[in-house]
Write a structure and sequence with these properties.
By secondary structure, this protein is an alpha+beta fold. 28% of the residues lie in helices and 30% in strands. The strands form two sheets. Strands 7, 8, 9, 10, 11, 12, 13, 14 and 15 form a nine-stranded mixed β-sheet that branches. It has a six-stranded antiparallel β-sheet with strand order 2-1-6-5-3-4. Bound molecules: pyridoxal-5'-phosphate (PLP). Pyridoxal-5'-phosphate (PLP) binds next to helix 7.
Length: 292
């Protein structure tokens, strides 16, 4: 793979999680120990932050969520000032690109070692204009967990942004096999949850609605910003329980996430959903204009 435009920063982390140094290195330089638990167990947490012309978007909420995920995995509490510096150092190297992203990773470290591993990787974003304007097709998929999984079985880490994303990527392949672009999870008791790597926002009776976050889903930074923007523009919002039946009443829907931003949904399973091009464009303009 050509990583000419990629930027890599390694963090020197203390046992406590303190960031002792942030070092920019060649992106293709050997950086990760073969026994790092990130690689061998997916035992760690991450965040992916959108960067607009070198400026991170929603950085604070991303760092807060990194700390929340780390706490769920009993990882050392991340030193957020140090992680912030790492993101800013990588982001400034990407300033010539209108859109890019930085992924930050905190793992439990090398198996048998005594300190966590951390790094930040950034690169220019792919072109998401088709997803943002033409929209995407999604399928509903059973996640196999009950909607109260976060309380009944916290060890399953539902709602933490862990490195164990093999399931999330398998879901995208399943969607592709069924001729769709993405998927929306439904709990085993029939409650609509989230996308594979995005949150769901639907418009029902002129209200933007998103599922509750106590269902073991990720509290989305993009969804929060969409709702803040909507509130400022007189568009009512609501956090609620949604069933697949409720989705039949939606006259617009989006999957929202960092990097791709607001992708209007044009079909759920085989049912067409109208795309509100004007509202989607306004949402995406607002998301692109965000700062820290
Ligand atoms: N839900 C899941 C499972 C995700 O992986 C992501 C982002 O990758 C999101 C939701 C959206 O979160 P954010 O808007 O903070 O990127």
């Amino acid at each position: 793979m050509n990583h000419r435009s990629a930027v890599l920063a390694l963090l020197d982390l203390a046992l406590s999680g303190r960031v002792d140094a942030v070092r920019l290195v060649e992106p293709d330089s050997p950086a990760l120990h073969a026994l790092d638990l990130a690689a061998t167990r997916g035992d760690g947490v991450f965040e992916t932050i959108s960067i607009g012309a070198g400026r991170p978007q929603a950085l604070r909420p991303h760092l807060t969520r990194l700390a929340a995920s780390a706490a769920m995995l009993d990882l050392p509490s991340p030193d957020l000032d140090g992680w912030r510096e790492a993101v800013l150092r990588v982001a400034e190297r990407l300033a010539e690109h209108p859109e890019s992203w930085v992924k930050i990773v905190l793992s439990r470290g090398v198996d048998g070692g005594d300190r966590p591993t951390g790094w930040a990787w950034g690169e220019p974003s792919a072109d998401f204009s088709a997803a943002r304007t033409d929209g995407i097709r999604v399928i509903l998929l059973d996640r196999g967990y009950s909607s109260d999984v976060a309380t009944t079985s916290p060890w399953l880490l539902a709602g933490a942004k862990t490195l164990s994303y093999a399931v999330n990527t398998a879901v995208k392949r399943e969607a592709a096999r069924r001729g769709a672009d993405d998927a929306v999870f439904v709990s085993s008791d029939g409650i609509v949850l989230e996308g594979a790597t995005a949150n769901l926002v639907v418009r029902i009776d002129d209200v933007l609605v998103t599922p509750r976050t106590d269902l073991g889903i990720l509290p989305g930074t993009t969804q929060a910003d969409v709702f803040r923007w909507a509130a400022g523009h007189g568009i009512p919002t609501r956090i609620d329980t949604l069933t697949p039946h409720d989705l039949l009443r939606a006259d617009a829907a989006w999957l929202v996430s960092s990097v791709r931003h607001a992708a209007p949904i044009r079909a759920i399973d085989d049912r067409a959903v109208p795309v509100d091009a004007e509202l989607s464009a306004a949402m995406n303009d607002a998301l692109a204009a965000r700062t820290e």
